[in-house]
Every structure is written in structure tokens, then in C-alpha cells.
Amino acid sequence: MSMFKHAAEILEARVNTFLNRADDPAQTLDLSYEKMITTLQDTKRHLADVITERISLENQMAAAKRDSDKAEADARMALQAQREDLARAALTEKQTAQQKIVALQQAHDSIATQAEKLTAYETKLQDRIEQFRTQKEVMKTQMTAAAAEVGVSESLSGLGTGLADAGDAMRRAQDKTAQMQSKAEAMEGMTEAGILSDPLDARDSTEKELDKLRSTTGVDADLARLKAEIAAPK
């Protein structure tokens, strides 16, 4: 493989990876889940603020109630001491405290209603997020399995790069082996014909032919002898 072809394959792989990530349903599902979690966290913060405000109003109402009770006790004590002027002043303070309690109670009722709505919304949102998370994981598993199945099918059908490259390599190896075998046979024939010489064999072509003839004659003689021995009566 040339250097330029290798660089082109690397560039193509990176471009494909970028495109796959740009249109990756699994990644889109994860981002949607993260946004839902962010919304739930914002809801929890708002709910915490509302509950904090409700508790603050309850504390103010309790303080106003104590002021009202104290003012009434002071008015009672002033009347017992024949000080109607002081009793009137204490009862004025009581009325102020009572009016404050009414205003605080109205604000508290409104905040309590808002807290109940936020609590119900938070519970419903948590349920939906859990359902979405389960569906998301199931969908991602199905997508992974489908992608693997497509990859295997492409490889088996030759559309992929795995088995296709392996098949090309196998064919090249077979062609190379056939060429080497043909070359070996050609060189052996040329050596036997005397066109090529063995550097370790000092015989000339005449001596080689004579040695070959002697070998053939010897084989023929041994074969005739064995046939005669077998045919001879015991």
C-alpha cells in the first residue's frame, strides 16, 4: 500500500467518523436525557426556594401570633391596673399583629399551593425521565445490535472492507504462489536441459547425459533381474 493511499484511507475514516457523530441517534438520545435531567434539577431548585419562602412565612406568622398574644395580655394587665389608656395602646398593637397575620396567611396559602404544584410536577417529571431512560437504553442496545448485524452482513457479502480485503490478499497470495511454482518448474527444466548450470555440479553436459543414461540402464537391468527371479520356478 502506497503512502498516499494509506493517508487517503485515514482521512476517509476520520470524515466518516465525524459524519456518523453528527447524525448519531444514540448521541441525540443522550443529549435529550441530559436536558431532561437539567430541567428536573431546575425544578428542584425552584421547589426548594418556594419551600424556604413558605417556612419563612410560617415563622413570621408565629412571631406575629406571639406579638398578638402579648399585646392582649398587656391590655388585660393595664385594665386591671385601671390604665385604660395603656390597654387601648396594647390592643392597637394586637390589631396590627392580627392584620399582619392575615396578610402572611394569604401569602402562605399562595406559596403552599405553588409548592404542591411544583411537588406534583417534580414527581411526574421524575417518572417520565425514568421511562425515557429505560427506553433510551433499550433503543441504544437495539441500534448497536443492528449496526453489528449490518457490519457482519456487509463483510460476508463483500461490501465491507474486512473480508473483501482478506479475499484480495488471498487471491494475490495464490497468484504469487502459482508464479513461483511456474518459475521453479521452468528453472528446473532449464537446469536439466543444460541451459542453467548448478554451481555445485562440476560436470559438463556430456557427463550429465552419460550419468543419466547409466542410471536409466541400471534401473532397467535391476527391473529385468527381478522379473526373471520372480518368473523362475521354485
TrEMBL record:
Keywords, sorted A to Z: Coiled coil
Where does the record place a coiled coil? 47-107
Where is the segment annotated Disordered? 182-217
Which Pfam families does the entry link to? Answer: PspA_IM30
Span-the-membrane segments of this chain are none
Spell out the Basic and acidic residues composition-biased ranges.
200-214
Tell me which InterPro entries the record gives: PspA_VIPP1
Note whether Coiled coil occurs among the keywords.
Answer: yes
The record's section on PANTHER family has:
MEMBRANE-ASSOCIATED PROTEIN VIPP1, CHLOROPLASTIC (PTHR31088), PHAGE SHOCK PROTEIN A (PTHR31088:SF6)
Q: Which family does it belong to?
A: Belongs to the PspA/Vipp/IM30 family.
Query: What is the official name of this protein in its record?
Result: Phage shock protein A
Query: Lineage in the entry?
Result: unclassified sequences, metagenomes, ecological metagenomes
